Amino acid sequence: MRIMASLLFLALLTTSARGQIGAMAGKGATRAVIVGISDYEDSHIPKLHFAHRDAQAMTEFLLSDSGGKVKPEHIKMLLNDKATRGEITTAFYWLIEESKPGDRAIIYFSGHGDMENKLLMDQGYLLAYDAKASNYMGSGTFPVEMLQKVVQTLSVKLNTEVILITDACRSGELAGKASGGVLATNQGLSRQFANEVKLLSCEPDQESIESDQWGGGRGLFSYFLIQGLKGLADEDANLKVDLGEIEDYLEEEVSKRADQDPMKVGSSRVELFRVNEDTLLALTQRALLEGEAIAAVNSRGAADTIVNPLYQQFQLALSEGRLLYPENNSAYSFFRQMEQEEALQPILGAQRLNLAAALQDGAQQAINAYLEASPEEMARRWQYDESYRQYPEYLNAAAELLGSDNIFYDDLKGRQAYFEGLVLRLQGEIMPDKDSILQLALEKQELALSKDSLAAHVYNELGLIYLRLKKYTRSLEFFEQAHRLSPSWVVPVGNISMSKLDMGRIEEAAEAARDALELREDYVPPRCNLAKIAFTQGDYQKAEQLAKEAIAYDSTFTNAYHILGIAREKMNQLPQAKEAYLKAFHLNPKDALVNYSLGYLALIGGQAEEAAAYFKTAIRFHPYYADAHYNLGFIYLSELPDFPESEKYFRQYIKLRPADMEGLVLLACALSLQGGQDQALQWLEKALEGGFSDLDELRSTPFLQQLRSDPRFAELLSRYEN
Description:
Elements (H helix, E strand, L loop, with lengths): L1 H12 L16 E7 L14 H13 L11 E5 L5 H14 L5 E7 L2 E2 L10 E3 L13 E3 H14 L3 E7 L13 H10 L6 E4 L9 E2 L6 E2 H13 L7 E3 H11 L9 E3 L5 E4 L2 H8 L18 H4 L2 H11 L11 H8 L6 H27 L3 H8 L7 H13 L6 H20 L5 H18 L4 H13 L3 H14 L4 H13 L3 H14 L4 H13 L3 H14 L4 H13 L3 H14 L4 H13 L3 H14 L4 H14 L3 H14 L4 H13 L3 H13 L5 H6 L4 H4 L2 H8 L4
């Protein structure tokens, strides 16, 4: 037996003087990124029990004599909430930056792996702490494809020895279970990326077992992997463990305990670790203590950097979120100054990566929240939160810090383009010449798609742009592609309903809305779409009921209150309509549509000053709201006579609605009441040339009484008599 052979060999060794034998096979430095996630942020992703403990055990092994006494500052250990996509990415930045030819890089991941849908059989994901069960692509996941780039860069470009160990086939009800997501992920991991050595916890179609019966609570694979690396796998007793030996050992110890067959990729002769005799002796005598305290694993800089004023300013700015602004008091500014100080050169690399990670954190969190259809994030988009404008700047700065040669550079530039396009679309929605702005937004999203062709949120954004351009068929194509890529993400399904509603395909719109509610009952936009459908069909009571249901799920959804208000208006329940509008106003005082509705109720209720105040507020936040300009012009023409003000608003209305000849007539009225008969006649003639035909109205309106005494008025109208 393997253990008896080890005992016999060690017994012989104890009779002679021992030389110090290095535990690692390589002569260069060893660095490691160790990730273990048991508890995920999204409650829909099933918890694991011991993934984080497996990662701790691997770190402890590397710090020990058996694992080569790797320097603590050469290990990045990320557990649970510290193992976000951003932190994992930053750790890989560090690993690539620090690795040199002849070094060894160890990547260890213990947690969930999955792939969301069967259309992408070559694409799998390692789920980071901030992964979203509703949408892997773009959220807190690390694509196997990106891991491949990391390994290839280390192995091929940097000539670094790479050992990749993954335990990513844990059991659980994941989004991709029906489409073989775990299987696909492990198939991707099992393919050799470059010249790396790989150890996988099981075959692609198997599950990795964890239990408290191993090491007080460990994964079966991880527990015996470390036992084997410490020496129990040393079959030929030469105090070295190679890949073939660990494969044989794991097959013997793991496969006999569960339907789980660990896999290896690489030459069997590759030496992994050298055996520490004392550790092996303790193991074979079954005296190894479980649960030893793990050494602290933190990056350490030179002692004199801690008291350096510039470094302290940098750290303070970083912690307070002053990343780019104020320009002279930001972390970015201090970092550029740090680059000029010789004493700080040893820590610049690490701080550059920290700053780059911080710069992209807000943008990634925004994407994650969007993919989760968080009500707060959706409200930020609908209300156009100004903070979106900073994301492209931050992502551009992060890309600049990393450099164009960095393997994550394209990913950053893709996200930058996505947010640039998003900002353009949100700005364009309130612009009169929005088509040109939306075309620019389109170009940005196409650039983003060229960087990541599987980004469902980019396809969804393209659908929204085409929807605003009224190219409904194209819009629908992009929403449907977003849905195919991420079938459990509710947002594109809700948008399919909205697109079909705009196309007049009412029944299909209702069906899509119901499909969205099956995915997420508490996602309110589809329910509001159903309320709009009921409203357009004249069923105002049903529209009211559906709006109330939407509010019951999300009492902060402004649009639901607005639909409730217009339904009540149609039922002549004006006080109740105003109550609904006021609730919407308190939720979002910047909502132009809500302000307009309150202004309209005030106007028909004879409260002209209150109406004018609401219409002005609508214009402040939506300068191109034509109807608000029209109503203000009319108020100052008739209700609160101020003819220069009336003229101002009607001139703006004409710019926004040049085809509406009534606007030209009303401008002529405002000018005539100020004594400007020549200008009034000119505008009146333009209106008649443009097709205004109600000559009786022109002859009777009191607003043109002064102009009618001018002979030119009668002559002008006579030219347009039938």
